[in-house]
């Protein structure tokens, strides 16, 4: 009889988004035709930039002609895209060689696949509240997961915990779900901590394009010593609306070595075995994101989401509700008013004002009592949702 990976049985049911969908469907059944305003989504709502669409069309045409047709590309990514991304890093003063850039189908794929490099006996440290895939991917691999609970005191971006037994450290900045960012000083502390212990940081920079504050690092490689302890995982999903188009990239520096092994070399070996790379057409579309025109256009889209975030934070400030995020991130993380629990607040907003958000408890136990609002929705819906929220809570917050 085949022996199964029994660790799957240890996974907690993924109830967060399923639970939201179930409750909203039930509400709509009871109140047909009511207009729900959805601020729970982590998906983008604006289409791809015109420069990307043009590049995608051109790439399709390339595939129709013998002289420009592309078959298999290098598994780790097309040189034109690896070079474009390396140049993009160089523009902000971060030296990355094109060969250190690995093109992927997205950050989720990569966050799971990269675990192949580490022994299941190593321990993962996840700063919670966290993107749920960090914990689940490690549980599937049979790895021990330690949690470091962030909170209001540290602005949901904690310092390293000297007591933690961590080999593989997940840091997400700007964070999903809290919208918090790590300062240069905090990231330096994490990098020093990882280098001292021989640990490896997996730095999830999926939301780096939303950083406004000029002092906040976009990349872990802005920090001294990061090249010997960090891997950066990035995505065009939120930066450029690629959630359905799919493209990400991972940076593994040559200097990153553990137990005599080069992680960059291991990952090259892994990719050349387990994938034949990302489609030529999509890589061409992605390269357009890094042209001056593409950059300008995607910044225009990000501005729309930022406008939504300002509407949300403005309403919460007016109501005197504690929140973080929104300034350097598309998410606003608010405290539920009057001591309500996350799901209790979810039900209250759904029933009273037909606004849908995401209960913080779904991102880890320490997210209880908090709630995530997303700025990826439609601007008019966001304004209306916040008017409804103000109408509901004005004068009602303790
Ligand atoms: N990392 C974080 C923190 C995310 O929030 C998401 C998606 O919501 C991802 C990674 C996944 O991104 P991708 O669409 O590239 O798989």
Per CATH, the class of the largest domain reads Alpha Beta
Total domains, how many? 2
CATH superfamily of the largest domain: Type I PLP-dependent aspartate aminotransferase-like (Major domain)
Structural class call reads alpha/beta
Radius of gyration: 21 Å
User: What would you say the CATH architecture of the largest domain is?
Assistant: 3-Layer(aba) Sandwich
Q: Mean pLDDT score, rounded?
A: 96
Give a list of the ligands.
Answer: pyridoxal-5'-phosphate
Helical amount among residues, as a percent range? 25-40%
Physical arrangement of strands within the biggest beta sheet: 2-8-7-6-5-3-4
CATH fold label of the largest domain = Aspartate Aminotransferase, domain 2
Instruction: Sketch the major β-sheet.
Output: 7 strands, mixed
Helix/strand order? HEHHEHEHEEHEEHEEEHHHEEHEEEH
Number of strand segments? 15
Strand content: 5-15%
So what's the overall shape?
globular
Enumerate the spans where pLDDT stays under 50 for 5 or more consecutive residues.
none
- What is the number of helices? 12
Features:
globular; 2 domains; binds pyridoxal-5'-phosphate; Aspartate Aminotransferase, domain 1; Aspartate Aminotransferase, domain 2; alpha/beta; 12 helices; single chain; 398 residues
Describe the secondary-structure layout.
Layout: H1 16-30, E1 37-38, H2 50-62, H3 79-91, E2 101-104, H4 107-113, E3 123-128, H5 133-140, E4 144-149, E5 168-172, H6 184-197, E6 200-204, E7 230-235, H7 237-240, E8 248-251, E9 257-258, E10 261-262, H8 263-274, H9 280-289, H10 292-319, E11 323-325, E12 331-335, H11 342-353, E13 355-356, E14 358-359, E15 370-374, H12 379-393
Parallel strand pairs: 1-13, 3-4, 3-5, 5-6, 6-7
Antiparallel strand pairs: 2-8, 7-8, 9-10, 11-12, 12-15, 14-15
Helix pairs in contact: 2-9, 3-9, 10-12
Pyridoxal-5'-phosphate binds next to α4.
